[in-house]
Amino acid sequence: MKKIHLLLVKAFIKPFFVTFFIVMFILLMLFLFKYVDDLIGKGFEWYVILELMYYASAANVSMALPLSILLSSIMTFGTLGENYELVAIKSAGVSLQKAMMPLLVLIIFLAISSFIFSDYMLPKANLKFGSLLWDIRNKKLSFLIKEGVFNNSIPGYSIRVDKKGSDGISLHNVMIYDHTSNSGIAKIIIAKNGKMSKNDDYLLLTLHDGVRYEESNGKSASYNPRQELTRMRFKETDQKFDISSFKMNRTDEEGFRGNTQMLNLKGLTKKQDSLTRELDSINKFAALNLNSYYKQNNYTKGYTKVVVKAKAFKGTVLSTIPKDQRLAIIQSALDQANAVQQTTSGRLQDYGDRTRAIIKVQIEYQKKFTLAASCLLLFFIGAPLGAIIRKGGLGLPVVMAIIFFLFYHIISTVSEKSAIQGSLTPFSGMWLAFVILSPLGAFLTYKATVDSALFDVNYFKQLIVNFFKKKKTKAL
């Protein structure tokens, strides 16, 4: 038994690591395609992008781990069935359940590890990822001088260069429009060539053989207005530009710590309690505030406000009000009704937002457990499925794994959206996929135990042939 268990563990570990890193690589590529516009053209250092990808890979574990367990379990038992090693194990008196036992222990260990990861490591990774992505998205475009194009990245300046040298710092035929003057008239600098250098805060252009033009309103009389144009030639001059605002400044992570995805179980419990208390206090205040509007007032004698019941009048309430006061009172009542409607609609919107915030906290709380449960569920689907189809490699197992995982992922996504909208409770929404697919795992385990030819094409052909033979016999 020890040799059989060791054989199964070795056969499982290799495809598990291979499929896990392949899935992680694919998810990271999808992440880069999604945020490529935020990363390209901003002059980031390579280690900043690697840091962002590292934190993003932690968030992708919740999808990569269950899929890799499903795919590797199908590949492991499919390879054993294809090489008739599973038949030899069963002929030695070892059932499929006993053969699955060492892998089941390994999967339980992975499930517990995934729960610890989702409760302790994933919130910290989401915090780092969220704050870094915020800084990247809010970083201004880095200053890039392109040939033959006026660049307006630096406020107050327009810079154009006909040609850049092969060294990346030499410039030819430079033209600069300086719009920083209070007079509204731009200063123009033209130079044959120059060089640029840059530090963290400034961009320095050293220009050679050029001309500076400055136009201004000179001393003029009302009868003879005129403008003055100053032209200054230079052999060499320096033009300094402030680019300190183009740097990426790291935001304090404490500002993101209250986000739902960045809390562990203890933090989620505290946040739910605080949100619930806030919602209860707001509801009580709204009830007391709106209660004062729903009173009928009598303005007949001395215009004294008296609460009156509608049944005390034989006619309409309006008939008890003097004619000269009716229009003002009707307008006042209409204003009060509009105020009630606006206040109520605003409070309903606030109530809906706060309720959805509580639901999201409850959903995130359940996610800490569903990741571990999905690992066990997909193993009990993948292991018997591989024993039934008896195909290893990356062909049919990959197709089957993708089909079952998409089925699981679609149910999980739809049920989660339904829970956010209030159609399902957060507990039901997060565990619906597990409840639906658990009978499937039990069914596949039973069929693999009894050596069912569930996916054997010849078996189904024979069933169809036998059906038509019986029908033909009854007809005769």
Overview of the structural elements:
The protein is an alpha+beta fold. It contains eleven helices and five strands, in the order ααααααβββββααααα. It has helices at residues 2-34, 36-39, 46-59, 61-82, 85-91, 96-137, 265-291, 323-389, 396-421, 426-449, 457-475, and strands at 157-164, 170-178, 187-198, 202-217, 227-242. It has a five-stranded antiparallel beta sheet with strand order 1-2-3-4-5, with no helix packed on it. The radius of gyration is 37 Å and the shape is flat. The chain starts with a helix and ends with a helix. Mean pLDDT is 76; it is low at 296-314.
Overview features:
alpha+beta; flat; 5-stranded antiparallel sheet
The residue ranges in which pLDDT falls below 50 over 5 or more consecutive positions are 296-314
Tell me, rounded to a whole number, the average pLDDT: 76
In whole angstroms, how far apart are the ends? 56 Å
Range of strand content: 5-15%
CA radius of gyration is 37 Å
